[in-house]
Amino acid sequence: MKEKILNNQDLYQMLDSLIRKPKPFWEEFYEDRDKEIPFFQTKQPDENLVEYFHHYIKPRTALELGCGPGRNAIYMARQGCEVEAVDISENAIEWAQERAADENLQIRFRCGDIFQMNLQEDSYDFIYDSGLLHHLPPHQRMKYIAFICKVLKPKGHFGLVCFTPEGGADITDWEVYRHYSMQGGIGYEEERLKELFKKEFHFHTFRRMKKMEQSDDLFGEDFLWTSLMELRPSLDDFI
Ligand SMILES: C[S@@+](CC[C@H](N)C(=O)[O-])C[C@H]1O[C@@H](n2cnc3c(N)ncnc32)[C@H](O)[C@@H]1O
């Protein structure tokens, strides 16, 4: 029987079919490297990521989700981390590999959808996402958080950069499906974002990104939230 809904997987598949396919969209997005996109014009890492490394964390292993052209993965590798970085776009991964090679840095870049990746459980001290979550449709968020909790080590850290309402579209979760679109990315109110993570994570920091100038050593746009979280212990950790 075609188009059946007999279980959760069928339901998720139906919802996926209502939203644009991510792979072709992101491949085309990276075709022209000279585009006027804020993070295309800079190789600098996020200002909040640099703050985390200076003041809060010293990870040995790090995973970047949706690494794009690699500026944050490269920063983490320069800090001595063993870095694995994933992106769905081959064009983005190629670009990131070229940049890492220019600096003689060893980073394990992998092209693929984070939801199809087979990564080992409890294996990263730190996971970073700068700009992926707000491009995920609402029904994929639970899977996204479950994935992070699975591959992060106990008490591991998670860093997030995500659209504020000024940075992204002001739409409800239901409207995404009513209009078959995330309108360029979902803008999150503070409470909406905290609601998603507060059960599994403790927030160390939650603030707007600081606006930086092109000439600065760091990247920053004030229409983005930044947060550093720590995985709460689960019941399994006590058994
Ligand atoms: C806004 S860009 C941010 C790029 C990079 N983090 C930066 O800030 O320079 C979002 C990235 O997420 C990637 N992406 C989107 N959906 C993905 C998925 N399901 N799995 C892996 N990567 C994905 C896109 O290809 C894109 O590079």
Automatic annotation (TrEMBL):
One of its GO terms (biological process) is methylation. InterPro entries: Methyltransf_25, SAM-dependent_MTases_sf. Keywords: Methyltransferase, Transferase. Gene3D superfamilies: Vaccinia Virus protein VP39 (3.40.50.150). CDD domains: AdoMet_MTases (cd02440). The keyword Manganese does not apply. One of its GO terms (molecular function) is methyltransferase activity. Residues 63-156 form the Methyltransferase domain. PANTHER family: THIOPURINE S-METHYLTRANSFERASE. This is Methyltransferase domain-containing protein. It comes from Halobacillus salinarum.
